[in-house]
Every structure is written in C-alpha cells, then in structure tokens.
Amino acid sequence: MTEHTQLIDAVNVRITTREYDPKPIDPDLARQLGSTLNALNTLSGLDMQLVLGKPDAFATDNASGHLANAANYLALVGPKDDQESLEKAGFYGERMVLAATLYGLGTGWVSGSWDRQAAERHCRITPSQSLYLVVTIGYPADQVGYGNQDFDKLCQRQSEHRTSKSYEELTSAMSAQDRQDAPEWFKAGVAAAAKAPSAMNGQPVLFAWDKDTGDAIATLDPSVSYRSAVDLGIAKMNFQIGAGGGTWTWGDGGRFIRS
C-alpha cells in the first residue's frame, strides 16, 4: 500500500469539516500541532495559536446547526492593519491546515458568525496585533479522516464535496495558446489551487504564466465580489505545493519563481 504523507496528498483530500466529534484532541497530537505552529510562526512573523476546548467562540453556529461540536481553533493573529501579514495568515494558515489533515483532523476556515470577542479572550493578543480569522479543528464526527480511510475514496469524496472552477476559468487572463503552452508544473499548480478553500467558495484568485520570464503570477479577480489577501495567500500555498517547489513574492500580482 502506498503511504500518502505528502502535502500534495493533503491538498487532494482536504474538505471543509463542519461537524466534529466532541472528544478532545489527543495531547501528544496537540503537542505536534504546537511544534508545527511554532515553526511556521518563526518563518512568517505571525503569532498563530492553537486554542483547545473553547466552544463559546462558536456558540451561535453550534446552536444553529451550521457547525456541530466546534470547540478548538487555530487563531490567526498578526500585526494590525497589515495586508502582507493577512496574506501570510492565509498562506501559512493553509500550510497548518494541510498538516492537520495529514494528522487525520478536520478543519474549516470560518468566515461567518463566530464570536470574535469570545475567541479573542482565549488568545494572547498584544495592542499592536489583531485576530484576523479562525480555523476550526478537531476529529471529524463521521471519523472519515486521513489515515483511517482509503486514499482514493477520500479523493473521490473531495471531488463530490463541492464544485471547483476549471483550469480555463482560473487562467482566464491568458490566451488559449499560452494556456496550452504553459509548462506542466504551472498546470499542476493551478489544479492544486482549484482545491484551495476560499470565502463562500468564491475562488477569487487568477493565475497566469509569463512566457517571457517563466514565472507564474497570481492576482485577485476583480469580478468576484468578496476577495481578500487571506484567500490570495491560501491559493498561493496550494499552487506552490502543486507546482513542486518555488517561491512566491507577496501581494496582488505576486510572482512565483520556480526553483
């Protein structure tokens, strides 16, 4: 049996989890998550935090049935009023989500009615910082997580979970010929980005291949009503994993230099 332990495998099976098992995250696993978070905070300059056993942040959504037993979350904390840090929160937050997926946990980027004040009470936030967003995390209620189900079935479940924009839609700024001529790594990057979560599943990030420089470019689609630096960061992370190595510059219009 093939062992699927790579981030691209997590990209191919991750779905948004809304219903959680009420059992707490295993302490050893929580420590592993904490170690990964610490490493990503060092890389990013963010202050992402793992908050466990605090369901009051999701009391409304748990009561309405929009979520079930949501009690743990990744708090994406960083400098106030800083667009680049918001993008980094999406980028490194998605990296954390994919790590959690490999550990068999479910996650969900929460853009709706979470209780910000309650969530902030459980975080360390300095006067120069703000809590950008939270990501729910825990064991899926149906126990259909990575590591305890056939990989191909999990991939199939993802494809049935939601519709994604096509390669043509995500590269709509390119000519048909350039789309066809683009290298395989670019096409693989776009395919991975198509599986990235985004607010209201709007998928607001477009990709282009610059044939003169060989770089990829990511831009926020002006035709999508809700788009944010967080979505841009999330999509860039998935693209980078799919493309198999390289480095992004930050910002709308940022370039991916293939390594």
Task: Provide an overview of this structure.
The protein has 259 residues and is α+β, with helices and mostly antiparallel strands. It has two domains: 7-138, NADH Oxidase; 162-258, NADH Oxidase (3-Layer(aba) Sandwich). Helix content is 40%, strand content 17%. The protein contains ten helices and eight strands. Helix 1 (7-13) packs across helix 4 (83-102) and helix 2 (27-44) runs antiparallel to helix 4 (83-102). The model has no long low-confidence stretch (mean pLDDT 91).
Supply the key terms.
alpha+beta; NADH Oxidase; 2 domains; four-stranded antiparallel beta sheet; TM1586_NiRdase; Nitroreductase-like; oxidoreductase activity; Nitroreductase family protein
TL;DR of this structure?
40% of the residues lie in helices and 17% in strands. The protein has helices spanning 7-13, 27-44, 59-64, 83-102, 116-121, 151-161, 167-170, 176-181, 184-193, 229-243; strands at 49-51, 73-79, 106-110, 129-138, 205-209, 216-220, 246-248, 254-258.
Which strand order spans the largest sheet, edge to edge or round the barrel? Answer: 1-2-4-3
Counting DSSP E segments of at least 2 residues, the number of strands comes to 8
**Spans where pLDDT lies below 50 across 5 or more residues:** none
- Per CATH, the class of the largest domain reads Alpha Beta
The CATH superfamily of the largest domain is identified as: NADH Oxidase
Provide the structure class.
alpha+beta
Give the tally of structural domains: 2
CATH architecture of the largest domain: 3-Layer(aba) Sandwich
Instruction: Give a short account of the largest sheet.
Output: 4 strands, antiparallel
From the N-terminal CA to the C-terminal CA, the straight-line distance is: 31 Å
Write the H/E string, N to C.
Answer: HHEHEHEHEHHHHEEHEE
Overall pLDDT score: 91
Task: Bin the strand percentage.
Answer: 15-25%
Classify the helix fraction into a percent range.
25-40%
Tally of helical segments = 10
What is CATH's topology name of the largest domain? Answer: NADH Oxidase
Rg, rounded, reads: 18 Å
Tell the overall outline: globular
GO molecular function: oxidoreductase activity
Domain Putative nitroreductase TM1586: 7-243
Pfam family, one: TM1586_NiRdase
Protein name: Nitroreductase family protein
